Amino acid sequence: MAVFTPLTEPQVAEFLSRFDAGSLVSLEGVPAGTENTTFFVTTDRRDLVLTLFEQGEHEELPFFVDLLDYLDEHRLPVPGPLHDRDGVALHALADKPALLFPKLPGKHPKAPNLAQCRELGDALGRMHAVSRHFPGHRPNPRDLHWLLPMHHKVLVYLSPEDQTLMKDEVETYQDFFGNAPDLPQGALHGDLFRDNTLFDGDRLGGLIDFYNGCTGDLLFDLAIVINDWATEADGRLDAARHDALLGAYLARRPLNATERDAWPMMLRLTALRYWLSRLLVVYVDPPAHDLTPHDPDQFRTILKARLEHGALPLPEGGA
């Protein structure tokens, strides 16, 4: 059970009284969380999600509130946080930062079909088109600047072959991106795996869990999505899902020539980003709570497939 901070109904009822959201009817802990405590809250007027922030840099929470407010104002399918009667969204509950969100419809797609891939590509393309103008700033905490020092921490736990693979890749990225022209920037989701989306059938109910949100290369966000949504168990790309998602994305935000040139390398970099972050959780910085870490080998497999087979051709569209 991933409810790290238990709450009572009277606590939540008092918290709700600050908002124009109705009176508490029921409270249910959500077992699926890995970092934060989440409850489903039902009032006499609506269904809500209450999140208590257990880890991370709490001073960065206003950035996430501002980003979700901005995307919600631009009619993106995100859970814009509720603000209280004084216009404040971020509060404390049980001595933890707390936010209240509308509960969006749908479930996580375990095996996304082509219609769902098109829906996601369209939404991400729309999000990136407007996020280029988001005024907030939070540097990408998992970009190349992070890879350079952090990969040294896991080398001792790897086979000689994997040590060479990781070191060679990081050096290659440093050479490529250090000399490449700047890529288009904007606000990113930063972790848009299928379990951070909700689908009601083939209809996208929402993009959720923006707590890796940041500003940086829009291509970084897109590569994370393709490496999860369009990848088979053996690490190879599925052409139909790849083309469905990217075709819909490019109709909303075409890639420029620099992005198209960088695309194969960005797929590799984001694969290594997750291989490394999962290795760090297993060997260096285990979670504070008794949770099973994700398997690092999944993204080692994806990285090796990108090296062996390369990227698929991008659909037409772009500057």
Automatic annotation (TrEMBL):
InterPro entries: Aminoglycoside_PTrfase, Homoserine_kinase_II, Kinase-like_dom_sf, Pseudomonas-type_ThrB. It comes from the Bacteria. Its EC number is 2.7.1.39. Pathway: Amino-acid biosynthesis; L-threonine biosynthesis; L-threonine from L-aspartate: step 4/5. Residues 27-255 form the Aminoglycoside phosphotransferase domain. It catalyses: L-homoserine + ATP = O-phospho-L-homoserine + ADP + H(+). Keywords: Amino-acid biosynthesis, ATP-binding, Kinase, Nucleotide-binding, Threonine biosynthesis, Transferase. GO terms for biological process: threonine biosynthetic process. It holds the Pfam family APH. GO terms for molecular function: ATP binding; homoserine kinase activity. Belongs to the pseudomonas-type ThrB family. HAMAP family: Homoser_kinase_2. This is Homoserine kinase.
